[in-house]
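dude i think i finally got it to work??
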Amino acid sequence: RHPVSLHGVSLSLAADAPPDAAHLQRLAALVQRIEPALVSEHLAWSAWRGRYHPDLLPFPRTHEALERIAGNIARTQDVLQRPIAIENPTHYLHIDGHDWAETDFLAELVRRTGCSLLLDVNNVYISAHNLGTLATDYLDAFPVQAIAEIHLAGHHADPQLGDALLIDSHDAPVADAVWALYEHLIARTGPRPTLIERDDQLPPLAELLAERERAHALLNTCEVSRCN
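look at this
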């Protein structure tokens, strides 16, 4: 048997209402059946006024949002009877009205709820590119002690706007720039469980295994360098 990591996209933890009770009960039944090593969800909203939107949408990081999301995480953890991990979102445009830096917001959620964090390096790269910030600054400010899992993925340029807007598509190989950020991150954290996401445009298995070996080699190098 291999450890399983359950990764959700539908709890809508940042919405203005609690997670859907029926969905949460179904998730709890799945968790009880599979007994995964980790359950994770996105820091985003995807439901409004009883309607589900098939996207992971950002929100203003206000004090009010912090209270609401912390409550939704706590409620979810109570139902699942375990801590969950929260993933950093992808950003495609600037949103006004923030009271918190995203890394501080995530750290406060960890402090209040006891959740852990899932750091998606591709999301960090895309967000920094789209917003004109430095991805390394984000990683250096991230509360790495709370990281339970790391994600890597591919992306593509928007069909209309080109490289001005990158899309988190999971349909391409992990970009070299994302690999570089991953190496930067694990030099600080040490080896952490890492998942390479590929949802579409699946290549031959050999290409996926080559990416897996690249990640494995970086993790091994990181472990050796930290021990010396």
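The radius of gyration is 17 Å.
im so relieved honestly
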